[in-house]
Amino acid sequence: MIPEIGQFALVLALCLALVQATLPLVGAWRGRPEWMALARPTAAGQFVFVAIAFGILEYAFLTDDFSVEFVAQHSNSALPAFYKFTAAWGGHEGSMLFWITVLAIWTMAVAAFSRSQPEEFVSRVLGVLGIVSAGILAFALLTSNPFLRLLPAVADGNDLNPLLQDPGMIIHPPMLYLGYVGMSVPFAFAVAALLTGRLDKNWAKWTRPWTVAAWVLLTCGITLGSWWSYYELGWGGWWFWDPVENSSFMPWLMATALLHSLAVTERRGIFKSWTVLLAIGAFSLSLLGTFLTRSGVLISVHAFASDPTRGLFILGILGLFCGGALLLYAFRARHLEAEGGFKLMSRESFLMANNILFVIATASVLLGTLGPLIITALGLGTISVGVPWFNIMFLLSMLPLVVLLGVGMHTAWKQMLAGPLLRRLRWPAAIAVVVGVAAPLLAYGATSALTIVAVAAGVWVCASALLDPVRKLVLRTGAPLTRGHLGMCLAHFGVGVFILGATMASAFKLETDVSAKPGDTVKAGGYEFLFRGVHRVQGPNFVADEGEFELRRDGKLVTVLTPQKRVYRVQQNPMTEAAIDTRPTRDVFLALGEPLGNDAWSLRIQVKPMMNFLWFGSAFMALGGILAITDRRYRQLRQKQTAHAEVVGTA
Amino acid sequence: MWRYLRYAVPVAIFVAIGLFFYRGLNLDPNYVPSALVGKPMPKFSLPTLTDPDATVTSDALQGKVALVNVWGTWCVECRHEHGFLVQLAQAGVPIYGLNLRDDRASAMSWLATLGNPYVTSGFDPQGVAAVDWGVTGAPETFLIGRDGNVIFKHISPMTPQVWRRDFLPLIEEQCRAGGCEFLAAAGGR
Amino acid sequence: MSRLLLVGVLWLAGASAALAIDHEIAFSDAAMNERYLNLIREIRCPKCLNESIADSDAPVAADLRREVRRLMGDGKSDGEIKDFLSARYGDFVLYRPRVTETTWALWAGPFVFLVIGGVVFWRIVRSRRGQPLDDEESAA
Question: Closest-CA residue in chain B for A329?
Fold first, then answer.
């Protein structure tokens, strides 16, 4: 009975979404205020019904309702309650409902925080969001209904995939969804601007915090996924250029370009068509990601349903939204052109290079991801494109970008003379060259030129990003630091830290497979691993062989590592839980392999220097974004909104 | 003119990509065609399953149209195709088995219970010959031609539909010069 | 039925999380071992959902790792080993695609993008250089 209510709630949500998608847009076009006024209430109503539906799905999980097919497939009575909750997004149908819920949340946020904007514009924005909601709701109801019944109901479910039974599951998908579904907001703003035919600095000022908010969440989501796979999958890698990973990364690249392009549009009123195109692109790539992970077109261990029928539907949605928006862009973008000059040495010029390089990076990743599909579709054979290709091609555009980043941050708008710029940058440059070159050589000995360049680039970005805060806070010179400015410095500092982490962890990692018997001491990477033995442990829904190792350095005990080899009761597949000792300067990683007989086991040991700089760097990027959103000028905007509302009174 | 045409570039690129996706929906990305098609069959020399002292080599397949079927008792889907393989063998189709990663005793009792469609089976517990044949698992069936080349590889169970649709046309072509006594009994012309 | 198959596929994905650490250690020589670990990362498991033979638990992955060890022990170069594997399993198993008349566009693509990007950048800067430095509109 209750799951049927959930389904009915979705139907009601769809009806409201259809109203939200049509009347406000027509109202804005025809100047009908009563139709435009429908935007907010229908958005609110849709949110309520979607929330009810999602709540009912969670209720079904938490009460072990195995008559619902989706619950039966992804849950089990022995599953800890924590994971019953997260299992709601552990499969295709539930995750689509989650997608819809997140979209409804963003739509509500836009509806709530847009009082100061003209009605015509807001109704267009909500109308576009309504079109997206209606499309995805229709997709869910017609092809991916999470409330379908399984009759007769099974006694117990299939259990959640053991890979997903991890705390990272609680937080990684929600963050990721909030991020790339959040790209629908700048998308809606951009399409609304194209429909209106007008786009000014105010539009950019309004769009920017929404974009940064979604970008922060997407940064966190991708980082958490990477961190989670590092800990959970236990192969010590954190990025595989897998199609599903790329699906989340391409929107991130576009979104990063977008938030930089918005800075120019807000400041100078130029780059309008770039900004609009990037906004459309970021959300289109989000939808593309949804298509790739659910259509079965590409192979990935992350992929959800491999169902061509669903794939066709999503392709249709992609065509409608993305194709429609791009078609609108083709016809309307020319009206956005604006005059505004700048010289070669200017911040605009660097930000234009930034736009271009990010687009190139995105295009490269897209080429690598779709390359095999295109070649097979053309009947030219079957190939694979993997880590070696992606690493080269990504660096091709990104290494120049980070070098330019250090310069562009300090370049004035419109025009800057080379002299003062070089003078300002001499310290960061000197530090980058000296530390970047000397440190790895001294610490690790001879290494490749690429590694040295990458380390130097990372130090360069860090030093350049810290220049303004150091000048202001320590030397007490220079312009006052707004939160926006500080946020930018922190985020860029994060980029530098990330680069250092990624470079050091891969260039100087030590990896070895060894065998050991209890009582043996294995030496690797400057550490000693004393194998104390293996014993059985019981988990809530698994049984494991747990190894005990003393990690020592120069004889002194650092910690005890307990890697496990688990077998989950229901699914019966062996899972490795690696033991990782995390310190700021390095990770030590130990995993159990196979029992070799005579109590001996094969082991994999990795020592990765600066591994955690990857996570720190990402955290700094996200924090920088958060700082930027909380800048005073947005609070002023809200104060103006409140004042405006008070003056206007009840509408 | 170009000034305005450039705004149409994104949508043009999108349409092109969209067409590839549409095509891609009808393709199976897991289908990897064999790299051996059109090439001479890989040489092998394996002990037979039934008699460890006897050997079966690729020479046994030279000069005739034959099937090589990869199987194992651990393979659930092999059981599904086994009945049809026995039928084909009764019709006279020469089928050679490659017993992969298996235990001799269980494999022999499996054949004893379910029937033995194979002229003989090579015993490959380590998958050494399997690597030479580009085998990824079981069941897989190769069609070997008169000239000793690999004509076709089919992954997943052999069914009458697969036999009629994929194998028979190729076999008929191979047998144009005659010499395939099994052809009529196996459903061909 | 297809749903169950699908769920089954996802289970297999879970299985692959058990590390592909072999029964014997590859090489006692550290440099050979490192070369081995790097090489097996570049070979794709022909039956898995996008994993290298280094990460996959599938039997065929173990067989291929064994072959790589054997060939390395015979003194073959990385290129020869990759040729050996792709002759049997196709170019599908190479994560670093070969440069052939089919794939040259794939390898050239990003470089072409860079060139196009450079041209676009130059044209934009050139046109903006000539425009007045004041903004034409301040709001609305």
Answer: B7
